[in-house]
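Box 4.2: Ligand-aware structure prediction
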Amino acid sequence: MATRTQNRQSNRATSNRTTSSRSDTTRSRSRDNRSAFSWGDGAGPVIAAALGGMAIGLAANYGRKALMQGMEAAVGDWDEILAAEHDVALAIFDKMLATDESQTFKRKMLLMKLTHALDKHAHQEEMVVYPALREAGIRVEADQLETEHGEVKTYLYQLQDIGPDAPNWLEKVREFRALISRHANMEEEEVFPRFKQELSEDQDARITSLVNRDGFWMA
Ligand SMILES: [Fe+2]
Ligand SMILES: [Fe+2]
């Protein structure tokens, strides 16, 4: 005759078997419902949220670019936009020159800002203005200016390479600023005015529009 303890253990075993068999059935049913290409329950809203987030991100980026380039377009013609960008770059140089060796984070941030500003600026000139200069017969100057853009990239590389706490960091920035200042002067005082004189109003507007379009994608 079974004791009460033996009965309890037996009942528990039966109950466990029942529970286990129920959960096996549930697992099996849920496996059956999931095909190889099913995203499973609840994935829809997650994907929708991810796509929504991506759309918001793209819209925000588009808005930021539109704002940045819209502000530049308000400056005026292509030559005025580029001259304003020269001023922005020179102002970043001045902030860099006002730092000391202990401000490594600030130096890194300013170098990043300068790199982005010069990259966008060079792209607009190399993709629109310099080719237009060559077409107008101002080839030697266009080639010289484009070669100097190569030197600009070399300075950016060297500043990145030596690091913000290098003892010659400021000296390098000073040399770099002098190059940009000379280069900007040649464009603003010599090459661009000579080219602009030869442009009709329509051609001038066309170059402004192309510079703005290029700047929008690079912003
Ligand atoms: Fe340039
Ligand atoms: Fe320039």
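In the box above, the bound molecule is fe (ii) ion. Helices lie at 4-33, 43-73, 78-97, 104-135, 139-162, 169-198, 201-218.
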